[in-house]
Amino acid sequence: MSELHSQGKSMEQIVQVLKRTPMHPHIVPAIEAAYSLGCDLKIVSDANIFFIRTILEHHGVSDRFSEIIANPSFVDEEGRLRIFPYHDYLKSSHECNLCPPNMCKGKIIERIQKCVAEEGKSKKFIYLGDGSGDFCPSLRLKDTDSLMPRKDFALCDLVSKNSNSIKAEVHGWVDGDELMQVLLRIINSHHPAIKSSEDSTPTMAVDCKKMAGPTPMDAPKNLPQAIPVPPLNSS
Ligand SMILES: [Zn+2]
Questions:
Q1: How far is the CA of 113 from the centre of ligand 1 (A)?
Q2: How far does the centroid of ligand 1 lie from the alpha carbon of residue 135, in Å?
């Protein structure tokens, strides 16, 4: 961000690029559907608050999330985006050797689990992730929870190799289309009032726990092609 600022790029130009970030067409409907079915949606991300808020607001879904937990950021008086670590590791370490020094998502999930327990509620967690930073929180999920790792990404690989350490039910997904199908199927199965509709929902998920060896290598060609992002300033 300092480099972009020194090159004369404005925050408005950065915002325009964030708004062009490709989004699979089923992601926003999946968020809306999960929200309308009564899920309490939270984002736990190693990106930063400014990026996430800008993208969510652009897609009109920022109010669907009760909490966004990410690295703090703000625009300083010179118009430069400043990003800070979630855990101030220069002062004290989070002491988790699975996670990068700035953020242990496992500690965050533990805090959310504790809040839910203190409210006296019995809630089931559905955790979606793809990166290696999502492995630590995956280890904290209970056997009544669900884990949705994106296939052919680091988390799914770690889950496959350490399946004995994972208590949650594992449901893989490839793209936004499958994400929505799998997510709604899990929500419906947890939701007695709408359980009758469950039978009509096709089952597409592959259980990462049961995957033998490496994940299939023919899957990436089925991924939607990313839309090229034009340069910041073409003038
Ligand atoms: Zn951790």
A1: 15
A2: 8
